[in-house]
Amino acid sequence: MKGILDIKTVHECNCCLGGKTLHPQVGVIRIDDSTDVEQHGIRFDFYTVLLIDNRAPGKCCRCCGMKGYDFSDATMVFLSPEKAFDMTHERTLPRKGWLLAFHPDLLCGTTLDHTLGSRYTFFSYSKNEALHLSAKECDKIECCLQGIDEELHHPIDAHSSTIITRHIELLLDYSKRYYQRQFITRGDKNNSLMERLCSYVNTYIMQGRLADGIFPSAEKCAEHLNLSTQYFKDLLKFVTGNTLREYVEMTRLGIAKQMLSSEEYSPTRVASCLGYPSVRQFSLMFKKITGTSPAEYKSAHN
Fold first, then answer.
1. pLDDT (tens digit, 9 = 90+) per residue, 82-128?
2. Which residues pair with 99 in a beta bridge?
3. What is the CATH number of domain 188-300?
4. 75: part of which helix (H) or strand (E)?
5. HEC letters along 19-63
6. Do residues 31 and 17 touch, judged by C-beta distance below 8 A?
7. What's domain 4-185's architecture?
8. What are the domain boundaries of the chain?
């Protein structure tokens, strides 16, 4: 069984994949049919962005989570340091595209220093949560890559790292925009995921599992939906505007309203069933969000 190729430096990446080292901490490599490795996987010790070009006849690849409701002209995969990648069992790298490699040290003292992971969370997505681009979007990303490559051909000086990093930041900003567009074009699929999440959270609450103050974790919710944890968090925030804890609280409040509308549930019983520490805390939370106390709400709806 073939192993995973570990690439430690940008220079080593250039040597393995046919690129030319113009800067020791960043490189842009064009990928074609001749650019591949013998190993079944590849792992980089630095940030890597892959642009997989599907526009040439016979080049389209649907191995990165592409569905019928996605654009299919190109695909982008974002790899954080030490994250392994492979296209298929037959081929590790795409048949056509670009590879951008940049070392975390390049970012020191720049606007991306210490913030890249929190601003561009898609570096934590799985391969099956890749970004799928239209032809126009692909052209824009290629323009950004060409801007980086052009700057790399300028002699290194005191401004090089700043200018190169700004080009990378621009590419990542466009990627962030296109990911949000993808959330929109995947609306029906996302609605289905939210329905499954709603069912999962409702069951969790009705089983009394909030009684110990333990909320469902993002990791467990993501696993239930077959998503990576970060993709789940970003999707939930985009669709609902809430964090997971806020979503659970709003769901619990919705169940409380339904229970209060029934004659058999008193505020005390609702608080107990839904895992609130006390009826007082339930009343405070309920009034804070609805503007009325549980007793007043119950009286108005019965």
1. 999 988 877 888 889 999 999 999 999 998 998 999 999 999 999 99
2. 29, 50
3. 1.10.10.60
4. strand 74-79
5. CCCCCCCEEEEEECCCCCCCCCEEEECCEEEEEEECCCCCCCCCC
6. yes
7. Sandwich (2.60)
8. 4-185, 188-300
